[in-house]
Amino acid sequence: MSHDTLNPEVMPSEPEKATLEGKNKFLGFWFFLGGETVLFASLFGTYLALRNSNNGGPTSEELFGLELVFVMTMLLLTSSLTSVYAMYHMKNNDFRKMQIWLGITVALGLGFLGFEIYEFYHYIHHYEFTFRSSAFGSAFYTLVGFHGGHVLFGLLWIITIMARNAKRGLNLYNAPKFYIASLYWHFIDVVWVFIFTVVYLMGVI
Amino acid sequence: MSTTTAQRTGFGAVLWDYLTTVDHKKIGILYLISGGFFFLIGGLEAMAIRIQLIKPENDFVSAGFYNEILTMHGTTMIFLAAMPLIFALMNAVVPLQIGARDVAFPFLNSLGFWLFLFGGLLLNASWFLGGAPDAGWTAYAPLSTTSPGHGVDFYILGLQISGAGTLIAGINFLVTIVNMRAPGMTYMRLPLFTWTTFVVSALILFAFPALTVGLFLLMFDRLFGSGFFNANMGGNSVIWEHLFWIFGHPEVYILILPAFGVFSEVLPTFAKKRLFGYTAMVFATVLIGFLGFMVWAHHMFTVGLGPAANSIFAVATMAIAVPTGIKIFNWLFTLWGGNIQINSAMLWSLSFIPTFTLGGMTGVMLAAAAADYQYHDTYFVVAHFHYVIVGGVVFGIFAGLHYWWPRMFGKILNETLGKITFWTFFIGFHLTFFIQHFLGLMGMPRRYWVFLADQGLDTGNFISTIGAFLMAVGTIVFLINVIVTTSKGEKVSGDPWDGRTLEWAIPNPTPHYNFKQTPLVRGLDALWVEKTEGRKEMTPAEPLDDIHMPNASILPFIMSLGLFIAGFGFIYQIDNISWLLAVFIGMGITLGAMFVRSVKDDLGHHIHKEDLDKGAGL
Amino acid sequence: MKGWMGKVRTLLLLSVLPLILSGCGKENLTAFLPKGYGAQVSLDLIVISLIVMIVVFIVVMIIYTMVLVRYRQKKGQENFIPKQTEGNKALEIIWTVIPIILLVIIAVPTVAATFNLADESDKDDSLNVNVTANQYWWHFNYQGEEIQTSQDLYIPTGEKIYLNMISSDVLHSFWVPSIAGKMDTNPENENTMYIEAYEEGVYWGKCAELCGPSHSLMDFKIVAVSPDEFDQWVEDMQNVDPEAEPETASAQEGQELFENSCISCHAIGSSPTALAPNLTNFGDRTAIAGVIDYNKENLVEWILDPEKLKEGNKMSSAPYLVNDELNEEEANQIADYLLQLKPSEITPESANNNE
């Protein structure tokens, strides 16, 4: 296998789609996100059906405070922006800057995850509101927890490919990998916007 | 370069080859073998059901065991037999039909298969570990959430794992068909089987996640104490029904559309005529797929959704009859004016038309909500869905296997045995299921362990059981046919049927790389276009060059094995917390394999053009 | 609407006639011989859709047969290549438009019937019965009447009865094919349907949603009697003395045993206890536990080993069985007591006699 085709003299403007494998990954990942959309839509539907079934336990009005969630939203929205910067630098074939911006993305994502863990801890210890306390509790932790799980997986993924390619730089083999990881990150962000609206805003108002 | 595929030295090498293969043709064979195996198990379960119902108040099996059998019959036939057998045909044919050397994601293709297989094995392991699931293949809560033992847990974990495999396969075919078509193979030149594969893959993509979520919620309720479907915690069992059928209705189109595709290939080939109304056929396929998402609540007419919802879903369901009718008439007019040659593949296809029309008729009747109050959950429904699933899907699989057997294995299945299979199975099928329409309206609900004596149901049930035995005979003769053909059948040319589409433009046996040179497609029925202009082969679209092929890998097998182990952990951790260890080990194996996949470059290998003529990689 | 529905009904009679002759199931069970309003509405719709569909099927089969007869390969024509027709606009429009028209013919009465059967406008003026489905028996609580029965639902003919249905455990479905189509019973919400029986009779009811091992043994009956008889039945049932002393000594023994043990789940007379079937009019039942032939021998067997006759039923875990506290003689006495619980002259017999 000649590595030359993967390390051309001049990197194309869209290195993530320059090879057939890259094109396949790009398209396949978009399809995957379509499936993920249905997954979250089903979870949202379940949550909407059960959000008032608190079974005598705390209600959403009693639980949710928008301040913390607002900070979390800002963290995640910003991280989406920083991942856009990273992809911008990828297209300019500036590997170092791409890595830096991805690093910032990861840091922001970790911050988000920390707040989420604190939030869950708070609900469990101050309100005794758990996964098992009511159908509402089950639906809340499942929907938000699935999102949190996606954030965690996204972070591990980005860290892995950053570490793996730290020494060898950007080429046409790993460019699609970076690109779809950033797509995934955007998707997580979009889902969070819906969670913020449907769970928290609608839960408080 | 990897030449493992060329070495056929002994059983171990062949086994290793199949464990690691990423070749779509071999994966197709793996799907065929495992799907066929599960089809036989599901068939045995069906026979147990019919023997139990041969006479009133029979006690061939106990009531609880009967529920396990009927649950496993449905689950096995849908998820572990029909779907993989369809995937077998898709894998064997679709890349060839579009002129590709492999699918878009060969590694994922292999992963999809192993996930399906391990999921199926996990589900069936329940037989030996305290009892199979017993809440029906629909697993309606709260029966499924309160069912004692671990049967339903095996259902949840088994389907979750094999469902992930199906989703992966769906995405793979979508990308394959979009990105891997040969030059000139425009969308409106795609063979109908490829079109149906495309639509079905989209259905899988958008339907299976609903099942994934449903299974997660069921798992949380059973194993982790949540209350989604528990009325005492404010939960609602109807949510499960919605999630299940949002998946479940598209699922039946996932099964039937590829069968439509098969008939749309077989009928033109043996009528020597191009498919009548190709554009309308494509449009109808897409429309059926689209409408398939709008009608799930017709499975829930008696749940109490109210007359408005029932009416909307009733009318939407009836609308599906229009594109389906278009297809039936297009097939009839494909035959009209043709030169119809009748062989086994054609017998299955021809008999499909009246059989499926009957199934479609009862489908429209079932759509009438106020009439469905009588049909619902009776043997009328059982008869209806066997008419469409056996009369459509199973007939389609048999037709497809007879038609593409020479492509997959280089030999034509024995015609005499093929005809014996057909007639016994066909007569047995109608004997079994036609009478069940009447049994249903005469007051026999489905999933009944016994029917009482002196309720006018004896004769019908007896006839039905006799029919089932005939179907079993047909299936056994087919197995004999496979053995006889494999051992004694003669090798045929690459184009034994005077075919029309690209898969027949390849020599026999199919080279590892499918096409030495990517073909140039110049019209619908690409090979036929060349034949009418007096050529025997496709015009190449590229000069002879090195061919890039993916590497084999054991990782898909290991990833699936990890989830299999973790599945046991999830099921048994509720009895003993130390089983969580199995969860960690299993997930560790899977994530570890994913990590290896992620950090280890897999650039594939090349077959050099000098080696092509020597038959390298065969 | 009514006019042509009538014509369809005549047509239906004609088309159903052969079926009746050849046996279309057991009377009072089969949906082919409707004896109630809902079943009639459903059957009308079934017949309309069936007729339309048979027309379609005949058209398909005519073309199909012609194709096979005319265009099957003949000897010596193996190499004949027919004309490669692409399609035919006119034909394709025809077989798109005509099915749409046919579907409208089915859809309009479907929507009408669906709304008709969900009508609740006169619910408050009618008799309401609260139905509770349990693994594996049915409980009927007559709203405002202080009457409760299990397994046998007595109703007057010619009146709309509203059933408010719920489940105490898993999903079940209430189905009396000769009277009306089915309705599921869910654990979290009440479903309402109405039934109206045209004729007196004892109608078979079945559970139509898989609910566990004994799903197929969850039968019940609707006993439709004349309105006068029903009124008397109501009066009799309201005047039941749950402690009335039986005549025979054995039954008296049985009563005492019953009141020391069985009463914690089973009620006699109107009582909020509904953990197990209400036995007020057990002496008039048509079957034991829904499906078992009604005689003393079977009743004793049932009391001593319910699991054998109905797998997974909750009586199997009753304390008297778990602790093995009941001998055969005692079971006989309880049976004697139960069999003489006949509070009313209106029984399933009265429903049958008037035919």
From TrEMBL, chain A:
Main location: membrane
Membrane topology: Multi-pass membrane protein
TM ranges: 27-48, 68-88, 100-118, 138-162, 183-203
Heme-copper oxidase subunit III family profile domain segment(s): 27-204
Keyword flag Cell membrane: yes
Localization (cell): Cell membrane
Keyword Nucleotide-binding found: no
The protein's name in its UniProt record: Cytochrome c oxidase subunit 3
Lineage, broadest ranks: Bacteria, Bacillati, Bacillota, Bacilli, Bacillales
UniProtKB/TrEMBL annotation, chain B:
Keywords: Cell membrane, Copper, Electron transport, Heme, Iron, Membrane, Metal-binding, Respiratory chain, Translocase, Transmembrane, Transmembrane helix, Transport
Pathway(s) the chain acts in: Energy metabolism; oxidative phosphorylation
One Pfam family hit: COX1
Broadest EC class assigned to this enzyme: translocase
PANTHER family associated with the record: CYTOCHROME C OXIDASE SUBUNIT 1
Compartment list: Cell membrane; Membrane
Name listed for the protein in its UniProt record: Cytochrome c oxidase subunit 1
Family recorded in the similarity comment: Belongs to the heme-copper respiratory oxidase family.
Organism: Aquibacillus albus
Lineage, broadest ranks: Bacteria, Bacillati, Bacillota, Bacilli, Bacillales
Transmembrane segments: 29-49, 69-94, 106-129, 154-180, 192-220, 243-263, 275-296, 308-333, 345-371, 383-405, 417-442, 462-484, 554-571, 577-596
Keyword Transmembrane: yes
Function: Cytochrome c oxidase is the component of the respiratory chain that catalyzes the reduction of oxygen to water. Subunits 1-3 form the functional core of the enzyme complex. CO I is the catalytic subunit of the enzyme. Electrons originating in cytochrome c are transferred via the copper A center of subunit 2 and heme A of subunit 1 to the bimetallic center formed by heme A3 and copper B.
Membrane topology annotation: Multi-pass membrane protein
Entry annotated with the keyword Manganese: no
Alphabetical list of InterPro entries matching this protein: Cyt_c_oxase-like_su1_dom, Cyt_c_oxase-like_su1_sf, Cyt_C_Oxase_1, Cyt_c_Oxase_su1_BS, Cyt_c_oxidase_su1_bac
Automatic annotation (TrEMBL), chain C:
Record-linked Gene3D superfamilies: 1.10.287.90, Cupredoxins - blue copper proteins
PROSITE patterns: COX2, COX2_CUA, COX2_TM, CYTC, PROKAR_LIPOPROTEIN
Pfam families: COX2, COX2_TM, Cytochrom_C
Catalytic activity: 4 Fe(II)-[cytochrome c] + O2 + 8 H(+)(in) = 4 Fe(III)-[cytochrome c] + 2 H2O + 4 H(+)(out)
Function: Subunits I and II form the functional core of the enzyme complex. Electrons originating in cytochrome c are transferred via heme a and Cu(A) to the binuclear center formed by heme a3 and Cu(B).
Localization (cell): Cell membrane; Membrane
Coarse class of the protein's main subcellular location: membrane
Highest classification ranks of the organism: Bacteria, Bacillati, Bacillota, Bacilli, Bacillales
Segments traversing the membrane: 41-69, 90-112
Protein name in the entry: Cytochrome c oxidase subunit 2
Bilayer topology annotation: Multi-pass membrane protein
Family as reported in the entry's similarity comment: Belongs to the cytochrome c oxidase subunit 2 family.
The protein's enzyme class: translocase
Keyword tags: Copper, Electron transport, Heme, Iron, Membrane, Metal-binding, Respiratory chain, Translocase, Transmembrane, Transmembrane helix, Transport
